[in-house]
Amino acid sequence: SHDTVRAITPATLKSAQIQLGTAVNSTSGTAINFTGIPSWVKRITVMFSGVSTNGSSNLLVQIGSGSFDVSGYISTAQIGTGPVSSTSGFIIGGTTASDIRSGTVALFKVSDTVWVSSAVIKVSTTGAGVCGGDKTLSGPLDRLRIITANGTDAFDAGTINISWE
User: Fold this and answer.
1) Is the pTM above the cut of 0.85?
2) How many whole angstroms separate alpha carbon 15 and alpha carbon 35?
């Protein structure tokens, strides 16, 4: 029997490692954008560390291919007293200005254009919450953003980063 030997190139090795994005201070603005995500990515992790806003809007994680998709999501979060849902993004709970969010949202590629999310987030005033959803894109995912659901509340504390593999 003969064994097949495959050379491991730097490009192959890099695509097998977890790649860390550049951390962004979430201290101003209504959206934190990450673009240029490679087409070979099969899993993205969004990391929240002490993230807060100045209002009562939930946060959304939106993805896209060429532009951000703002509709067509099926997403629910169970935080505090009950579930909240969104069709505008993968929803992350927290509904007071004093809420501080820490935790992760994992996005998994199901097929060429279908992605699912799974999250566990600690929200300071309501304990921990779980979130999940799915979304079909028009093409390969190349961008992700975290945005306030109402589009007007602004980030005022914390750090957000992503990793991909």
Assistant:
1) yes
2) 17
